Amino acid sequence: MTRNIMAILRGVEPDHAVAIAAALIDAGITIIEVPLNSPEPLVSIRRMAATHGEQARIGAGTVLTPDQVSEVAAAGGTFVVSPNMEPEVIRATGRHGLTSYPGVMTPTECFSALAAGADALKLFPGEIIGPAGLKAMRAVLPGDVPVWAVGGVSDGTLSDWFAAGARGVGVGSALFKPGDTAETVAAKARLFVARYDEVTA
């Protein structure tokens, strides 16, 4: 079972990445993002992909340029997440056969991203747009477009996001903060997964 929870490991260090990924996978989270503004992010992605690539999807966040897309692909990443909607990044992601999650905030950006070939949309920052904003945009977006809420998502807001039409969520500090041990991440992840399963049952 693949849950539509993307764990965002901003600030993770390569020496801890594999163990933290294992803790997430054991808890039931199998989509793991390492933002490129983390320490040696490509090393973390490469190590996690080599160790856990058959059990989880490993990718990169804060991807801003086509060259970075190439680096993520070379490291074994399978998806690319951006905070913005840059058509060249979306197209480069498609050329490398990776899944594209560009950041969008308005209907104009949503449709531009889809026209460029985005596979899914990252509604960001979620805490500003809110479930009400997503619900309004859902009225005009194609029904089969996956929209993921990212930013300010917690176990307390999950039901609101899914009720508004989210297909998935990206979760950062509610699952991982720099300095967290694998055991700490495992405990957070188990609680989050239990709430997700309740909301999506």
TrEMBL record:
Keywords: Carbohydrate metabolism, Lyase. It comes from the Bacteria. GO terms for molecular function: lyase activity. Pathway: Carbohydrate acid metabolism. Pfam families: Aldolase. PANTHER family: 2-DEHYDRO-3-DEOXY-6-PHOSPHOGALACTONATE ALDOLASE-RELATED (PTHR30246:SF1), 2-KETO-3-DEOXY-6-PHOSPHOGLUCONATE ALDOLASE (PTHR30246). Homotrimer. NCBIfam families: PRK09140.1 (NF006600). Belongs to the KHG/KDPG aldolase family. This is 2-dehydro-3-deoxy-6-phosphogalactonate aldolase. It comes from Primorskyibacter flagellatus.
